[in-house]
Design goal:
The complex is a heterotrimer of chains A (608), B (103) and C (258). Chain B is mainly α and 103 residues long. Helix content of chain B is 82%, strand content 0%. Chain C has 258 residues and is α+β, with helices and mostly antiparallel strands. Chain C has 2 domains: 166 residues, Four Helix Bundle (Hemerythrin (Met), subunit A), CATH 1.20.120; 64 residues, SH3 type barrels (Roll), CATH 2.30.30. The chains are: A mainly alpha (608), B mainly alpha (103), C alpha+beta (258). The complex binds protoporphyrin IX containing FE and copper (II) ion (CU).
């Protein structure tokens, strides 16, 4: 995009106001315009949604493993709150669909993206580039508020008559439109709020990175994390609006009776629908996946950025192929706009267009592999420090590898015919997002926690958290590949029972007892995964107040700018405007007193 | 900054420029409406001409009034990519639509 | 605390923050309207034969609106030029004109909506079809009065160009009516996309009017504190307004002329 500039640029001297003036409680914590407070607000809210999304799926996994049996422990509560869809504590198919749709929506739009971009991006980007705040602090506050409002609308939809949206996170029309409850309307309004929030947020992050880099911080001196955030923000900026357009059209279909996505002659419940018709269900899919494929890279790129930072810091040597990684990220973002229809191979598309999308899909896996390879190669010859953040970052690599490689058979139409809409797809993308992105986010939390609080999270419980999560994650998702190969479809409220050998013995192609039995096994692995998060939650809050204090402002001996601030960074971040002299990963320098050179330490006369 | 006389001159120049832009847009718009109602043999040709006229107007507004032409290259690159993705969106959707085998 | 480059351009990128932010926003807007235009073409290309209406919209009014919006684009441009020349009076004049033109645009748009909203298609139980404007005061509980015409075939409704002259008052007993539907978004795909696109565009015009009203009124206090900063705001608001004009430049031929 923009080349590193070697020409020297005169930056006007700027007044730098030091740490801030006292403000009241509301201005400091609730309506704050400080990027760090907003980042933490995003983080805490998103973590709550992450937990909620997890509870939804836990209830669904019970239903999948034990269809029609009352949900233990929480069944009565669900009945009390949600009424008839959960009568006698049993999950009805309607409720299963609601939970399924909302699990996906919450995880993608309310948990991972706000955590990865809203929280980490907001908190770290200005610090890493030596800025005193985001370019538009008030807009930043509004983005968070819109996100919060979107979340409230989504949550409220559970409580309205008929309950929440039921047509999956993909909300395919006509199904989404003809379900006669208001859940989908709420979903759409919520999405419009979330999209607006993301757009404002990404404008802010891009402007900040382009405009507020400290003097000397040229493009090729940016930490990889910043590049990843820049790319992810561009994806949000340009891919989300078409979905917003589609959302508006679906909203029109829902409330104004139009037929954007409803075909002529549509029959609902046995009768011809009273609509004008003439719309196209495929149009929705195009517009949806035009967003949703870039969106999956929004999920993964910030995670890669975090892993790169944690890795570089703990191998004590520069990242292998930093430039290559930057170009790979840019290529990947660009290509991610033209692969979307690989989600639509089975919509009856023609062979030529399908060939085009197969080709681009396979091409886009090249930069993904480059990124992974660079990270792996970086490990070679490093003096590796192992602790909780590093463990999570290391585990990211093989987990993302599995996720990415399992994507390849999906990328070919021929093999996708067998795998589409099965648990194999679920396995594929959860390997990328759950043990991939979520592990990276954990790594980030453990890694930057000392900067936020001046304290370290407990190492022992961190390792317990890591090993248990690692074990149970794989126990949950690995069997899904087998189920998918066996032809078990996703989104079935009875977990495949109707297509099983149990119901129709002797029929060919039914799901065997073994495949069905995996459901129960996955259920308990998921429960274990939930329990494994307890040490994390307790550790997090305990360490805020009671954790071991760190020595100095830079406990990890890191080079990047965010560690060269007071701890925690005050309003305005830096005591004086930093000047950057070198790239981000000057580790393993034996000619210096430490083994690393911070980006802003002035060069000594004899170096250079 | 600018001394007063040059800024007054540049303001006068802006007024002239604005007036001519408006006149051209008005003329092009009227031509466009005319073409749309002209008895042309081919509906496709008519649509093409109308869109070309709209394109001329758009270039005038973007190039002159939004001064894209004088803008720095950050903005140029951004716009180029945006237009590219828009073309990809519309083009690939239509291609997919056209390529779908009819029952 | 002060954020760098809010007023002056950053030397290497050559722009100030708000300008870049606005261009980024406009890029996303291009994709937003791009999605809608794509939907329009997609649906139109895929429409079954003999279902897409032509000439339903009022071309003279559409042309007038195009010119009004173009004129307002020029006045915002001049308002910015006036700020650069440090002429607050000229700024107020041109921004006032922009506001006026924007409001007239919205008024005309509102009239067009009203015109469509009161336009009905009636299907009678014996298969005859009538179309026309509802004459509200004359319609009663027993009969509907339309100023319109009879057509034999539904396809005749599709060409709106050559019929207006022959319209007359029709009185139709309600008992004979099978189905009566106005030209609301649900009527057909064309109207659906017409209302959606122009409605969204109208919201943008409204937003622009609010912003300019602010800059014209209370916002202009900034002029006396920091004229350069104020000039930047006018420039950025102008960029938005020009974009709104650009969208209309394409909406007009696409919806009115083809
Ligand atoms: C590296 C190369 C990758 C390839 C070739 C690939 C390919 C595919 C294909 C073809 C599908 C559609 C499967 C179907 O529905 O039949 C799919 C689904 C999916 N992929 Fe990937 N993928 C890759 C990486 C990723 C990454 C990095 C992520 C996210 C972080 C991701 C997330 C998803 C999601 C969420 C779905 C399912 C969407 C749904 O149907 O609900 N993929 N992938
Ligand atoms: Cu994809």
């Amino acid at each position: 995009m923009v080349q590193a500039t070697t020409r020297s640029i005169e930056f006007p001297a700027r007044e730098f106001h030091g740490p801030a003036h006292a403000t009241g409680f509301w201005r400091t914590y609730v309506f704050s315009t400080d990027h760090k407070v907003i980042g933490i607000q995003y983080g805490l809210t998103a973590l709550c949604f992450l937990l909620l999304g997890f509870f939804l799926i836990l209830a669904m996994r019970w239903q999948i493993a034990h269809p029609g049996e009352p949900i233990p422990l929480v069944g009565w509560f669900l009945e009390k709150v949600l009424g008839s869809p959960a009568s006698r504590g049993i999950m009805s198919p309607d409720l299963y669909n609601m939970f399924g749709a909302m699990h996906g929506t919450i995880m993608v739009f309310l948990a991972i993206v706000p955590l990865a971009v809203g929280a980490f991006g907001n908190y770290l980007v200005p610090l890493m580039i030596g800025a005193n705040d985001m370019a538009f602090p008030r807009l930043n506050m509004i983005s968070y508020q819109l996100y919060f409002l979107g979340g409230v609308v989504m949550l409220a939809s559970f409580l309205i008559p008929g309950g929440a949206a039921q047509a999956g996170w993909t909300s395919y029309s006509p199904l989404a439109t003809v379900i006669p409850t208001d859940g989908q309307t709420f979903w759409l309004i919520g999405m419009v709020l979330l999209i607006t929030s993301s757009l404002l947020g990404s404008i802010n992050i891009i402007t900040t990175i382009v405009q507020l880099r400290a003097p000397g911080l040229t493009w090729m001196r940016l930490p990889f994390f910043v590049w990843a955030q820049l790319a992810a923000s561009f994806l949000l900026l340009l891919a989300f609006p078409p979905l917003e357009a589609a959302g508006i059209m679906q909203l029109m279909d829902k409330v104004a009776g139009t037929s954007f996505f409803l075909p002529t002659g549509l029959a609902v419940g046995g009768a011809t629908a009273q609509i004008s018709g003439g719309g196209s269900p495929l149009l929705w899919q195009h517009l949806f996946w035009f967003l949703a494929h870039p969106e999956v890279y929004v999920l993964i790129l910030p995670a890669m950025g975090i892993v790169a930072e944690v890795l570089a810091n703990n191998i004590r040597k520069p990242l292998w192929g930093y430039r290559t990684m930057v170009y790979a990220v840019l290529t990947l973002s660009f290509l991610s706009f033209i692969v979307w229809a690989h989600h639509m191979y089975l919509t009856g598309m023609g062979t030529r267009i399908s060939t085009f999308f197969q080709t681009t899909t396979i091409i886009i896996s090249i930069p993904s592999v480059i990124l992974l390879t660079c990270l792996l190669m970086s490990l070679w010859g490093g003096s590796i420090r192992i602790h909780t953040p590093m463990l999570f970052a290391l585990a990211f690599l093989p987990m993302f590898g599995i996720g990415g490689l399992t994507g390849l058979p999906l990328g070919f139409a021929a093999s996708d015919i067998q795998l589409h809409d099965t648990y194999y797809v679920i396995g594929h993308f959860h390997y990328v997002v759950a043990p991939g992105t979520i592990f990276a986010l954990f790594a980030g939390i453990y890694h930057w926690f000392p900067k936020l609080t001046g304290r370290r999270m407990n190492e022992f419980w961190g390792r317990v958290h890591f090993w248990c999560s690692f074990l149970f994650m794989n126990a949950v998702f690995l069997p899904m590949f087998a189920q998918g190969f066996a032809g078990m479809l996703r989104r079935m409220a009875d977990g495949g029972l109707s297509y099983s050998a149990r119901i129709s013995p002797g029929v060919e192609g039914t799901l065997s007892d073994f495949i069905l039995g995996l459901n129960n096994y996955i259920l308990w692995a998921a429960v274990g995964l939930g329990l494994a998060q307890l040490p994390f939650i307790i550790n997090l809050f305990w360490s805020i107040w009671r954790g071991e204090r760190v020595q100095g402002d830079n406990p990890w001996q890191a080079t990047t700018l965010e560690w060269q601030t007071p701890t925690p960074p005050p309003h305005g971040n830096f005591l004086r405007l930093p000047q950057v002299y070198r790239g981000p990963y000057e580790y393993g320098r034996l000619d210096e007193d430490g083994d690393y050179l911070p980006q802003d330490r002035p060069p000594v006369a004899h170096t250079r | 900054m600018n001394d007063t006389s040059s800024s007054v001159n540049s303001y006068r120049a802006a007024v002239c420029q604005g007036r001519s832009v408006l006149l051209i847009i008005a003329a092009v718009t009227l031509c466009m409406v005319g073409v749309a109602h002209a008895p042309l043999p081919d509906a496709g040709l008519r649509t093409a001409l109308v869109l070309v006229a709209a394109g001329v107007n758009a270039i005038l507004v973007a190039g002159r009034l939004m001064h894209v032409l004088q803008e720095r290259h950050v903005i140029f690159v951004l716009l180029a990519f945006t237009v590219l993705f828009f073309v990809a969106l519309m083009g690939l959707c239509l291609w997919a639509h056209g390529d779908t085998p009819k029952p | 605390m002060e954020i760098a480059y809010t007023v002056h351009a950053r030397p290497d990128t050559g722009v100030y923050n708000a300008k870049l932010g606005m261009w980024l926003f406009l890029a996303s807007e291009v994709m937003l309207f791009g999605g809608l235009f794509s939907a329009y073409v997609f649906l139109r290309v895929g429409a079954p034969p003999d279902t897409w209406p032509q000439g339903w919209l009022n071309v003279p009014l559409g042309t007038l609106n195009t010119l009004l919006l173009a004129a307002s684009a020029v006045t915002t441009f001049l308002a910015w030029a006036a700020c650069k020349a440090r002429r607050l009076d000229q700024f107020k004049l041109h921004t006032g004109l922009t506001l006026l033109l924007g409001c007239i645009f919205l008024g005309i748009k509102g009239y067009e909506y009203h015109d469509k909203w009161t336009h009905y298609e009636l299907r009678l139980k014996d298969g005859r079809i009538a179309e026309g404007h509802l004459v509200g005061p004359k319609s009663t509980a027993e009969a509907v009065v339309l100023k319109g015409r009879w057509v034999e075939d539904r396809r005749q409704l599709l060409d709106g160009r050559r019929s207006r002259g022959t319209w007359q008052e029709l009185t139709i007993p309600r008992a004979d009516i099978d189905r009566m539907q106005n030209y609301a978004p649900r009527h057909n795909t064309f109207l659906a996309i017409y209302y959606t696109m122009t409605g969204l565009h109208g919201l943008h015009v409204l937003g622009g009017v609010v912003v300019f009203a602010y800059l014209w009124g209370p916002g202009s206090r900034l002029w006396h504190v920091d004229p350069e900063h104020f000039t930047n705001r006018v420039e950025v608001a102008g960029l938005f307004w020009h974009f709104v004009d650009l969208v209309w430049i394409f909406l007009f031929p696409v919806l009115y002329l083809s």
